[in-house]
Amino acid sequence: MKKIVLSVIGLALFATACNTSKEPKRDMSNPFFGEYNTPFQVPPFNEIKLEHFMPAIDAGIEEQLTEIKAITDNKEEPSFDNTMLAFDQSGELLRKASIFSTLKSANTNDEMQALAREITPKMSAHRDNIMLNKELFARVKAVYEKRNELNLNAEQLRVVEKYYQDFERNGANLSDEQQAELRKMNDELSMLSLQFGENMLAETNKNFKMVVENEADLKGLPSDVITAAAEQAKKDSMEGKWIFTLQKPSMLPFLQYAEKRELREKLYKGYIGRGNNNNANDNKEIIGKMITLRDKRAKLLGFNNFAAYSVDINMAETPENINNFLMKLWTSALERAKVERADMQAMINKEGGNFKLESWDWWYYAEKVRKAKYDLDEAQIKPYFKLENVVDGMIYVASKLYGVQFIKRDDIPVYHEEVIAYEVQEADGKHIGVFYMDYHPRPGKNNGAWCTNYRGQSYENGQRITPVVSVVCNFTRPAGDVPALLSYEEVTTLFHEAGHAFHTLFADGPYRRTSREVARDFVELPSQIMEHWASEPEVLRVYAKHYQTGEVIPEALITKLTKSAQFNQGFETVEYLAAALLDMDLHTQPFNGDVEASEKASMNKIGLIDEIVPRYRSTYFSHIFSGGYSAGYYVYIWAAVLDADAFDAFKQSGNIFNPEYAAKFRTLLTKCGTDDGMVIYKNFRGQEPSIEPLLKNRGLK
Ligand SMILES: [Zn+2]
Q: Is 135 a catalytic residue?
């Protein structure tokens, strides 16, 4: 998963039954209550204990309510400074303590999960207590209504408009009775989403493992994959056997290479069955409740359905625009996927296999077809993608584009011993921020990859408070003597998440509400554009070096990689679009009470072929049920139009590091919250984006 950082509101404001009586005595041994004496004032992870969170969150809630009371008690006429700015700056302690949820995604345990069940409803209630605070809204509205007479600059004007919209969208204009109903729904939804995430964690990391006892069943697997499976078995006290899990670094190579077809089927069915096993971690009922509640909530707020509510503030504006856009790509992608299917079936027939291709065969035969067509397989390129070398490549690109430098620092506290901390500096040594990297799977880590932050940028007394950003992945681990060798997908994922990190690191503005906040369908532009550099021959020659010999990737291999760039793009696009369309259907169509049946109906409607399963099925669609992408999974391909077009500008100029475009793109990253996405984009590009580069890249013309 590639995840956005939570919205300002989501991150900054949290929740409770309000009681603004006198401040209780604070336990000053709780690090959240003091200044951080760490390099760049990063959170002192080594001092923060589980028992520190709740008191800090409670105090943070109180403190923010006191700050808000000071705004509403102000006898002066509502102004930008005494209302908007004061509100924008409120909630500092709560922001500090809210690293709880950031940590929980990357490094949880049973105690944290239990604590999350206490914290979540408090946060939800606190958010409502702010958004539904009548006195506060009256002042926000007063400023909003006279905003054009206040001599505000463009950014301040946007701050006013965005905050007014936030209140409106969170029910400030509803009647008391409706607001009471809304509070109940918000509370219920927050807990359902939490439960969905917990179930996913259990279903991915605990409830399934495939134990292989017979060495012959490993036939076809590369030796590093076998070593990793043996190490997993040893960890699970089954030395001498091999264990494969539903975590991608374990599952995908098995699907790609294992000759034993029944075992590929078993593993794949384990994966696509997650959340749908009628056990304690089943997600079907939760999904039913969530989509019903979301629909009711959207209607209460004056929209036809949840998707209409959700995308109203996005570049796409309406579900119809999104569906039309997705369907425009669907037909040609499906055609291509059918051609790919035929190639694979031909391969099966040629080998004398007397069976029809199934979904669990796709990776295995795709690999074979790639070998036959391009004389290329993943095992050939992996030795050139040692994790550390790929990181060097990403840093090289960042420094060529933006002149930044990465300095590895052992003195910066980290939240887990495997995490690596960098200081990011300008070319002249000026501090930009701190960048954590956390690469490998652990039982307490959500699956997927994401970028998040432990502190966003802000200004305090004219001084910039610098960001602390974190990239969390689930990449292949080193195994035996072999270092972590990444798959090509992992390579691009690393560049992608780093792109999100640069968005956060470069953001620079006086107001939290506009400093890095962008529409959800803009947010994958900063990340996805970085993927283009990862595969450029000029860049590969810098970082893709053999892990044993140090030899630079041979030109012949680069040529094969370039030639095979469109390989399997039918499949990739179809499995993605199927999930994006499923998300839109779930959030626009009336729910018939049966999750599986409605998913099937959606897929039949678009003619999805049996050999492809949507990239996420409903019961493990974390993006939309616990990850902030509800009615928003489409954003990746929406933004892909932008990133393909933006990178095309570099490419067409004849210099993929064109300094003029690089400077403009950095400005886009620095200022992208200050205006609508299309305006910001056109400032960079000088024109509207074209869909042609995307179609060309994917061979979908
Ligand atoms: Zn992303």
A: no
